[in-house]
């Protein structure tokens, strides 16, 4: 059994979609392992939904790899890390290439895509499966790789370890900073004028763990996107007020539709409503060390 097969078997995929998700999630970890062989994590930290899944146990699929520099650097070159990523992936028998995404608008995000042929990859991993017949010839497995080169301040990071595909370490946002980023997404993310249900799902997950919010980092994020004014001092009470107003604006049917493809147990979605989210938000806790709140 190859290392890739060993990693994928842990997912116990049944359907073709299960197998595609498993391949993407394993590929994400291979990319992290490849980056760990470089100086990448001396300059950047892993955050976002995939970081929450791999290192903090959230039970939903996440498509992208999101990173943030530790210190702003407009000269950061993401392409420096393309070869180490390709080498790590291809050394395990998979055929993927990495290419930079050209910016169409001025932003703080540097992006790249990791791409491979879905049919070829499926045949490589599941040589005895007939599922590959269901895939069109040119379908691609695509993972987006993004780096915020002008990050908001006051995030906390820690070093986490993994054993497969080989032992490696990653610098990742701690739970309180990930929660802050998720709350910022709930409040401020623009997605075709509606919220991503995935953000709401993650928000509820961190609340269920009684995770404290890195309030100072959240304040920095909200000011960077001009969601709150520069002179505003974010407090727990103000945060609850902002969230409650946001929950009044959400179309929960659309939010549920967004998150359904990414989770297996969908029974919790039945509770989603403005009343539900307002109620659980009263449980929110903040990191007192950062804000004296």
What's the short story on this structure?
The chain has 293 residues and is of the alpha/beta class. It has helices at 3-9, 16-36, 40-43, 49-56, 82-90, 118-125, 175-188, 197-208, 215-224, 236-247, 252-259, 274-281, 288-291, and strands at 44-47, 65-69, 96-100, 109-117, 140-148, 157-162, 168-173, 212-213, 285-286.
What does this structure look like?
This protein has a five-stranded mixed beta sheet. A two-stranded antiparallel sheet has the order 6-7. The chain has a two-stranded parallel ribbon with strand order 8-9. α2 crosses α5 and α7 runs antiparallel to α8. The protein is built from 13 helices and nine strands. It is an alpha/beta fold. Helices cover 43% and strands 16% of the residues.
The unreliable regions are none
Please report which band the strand proportion falls in: under 5%, 5-15%, 15-25%, 25-35%, 35-45% or over 45%.
15-25%
How does the major sheet shape up? 5 strands, mixed
Number of helices: 13
Evaluate the radius of gyration: 20 Å
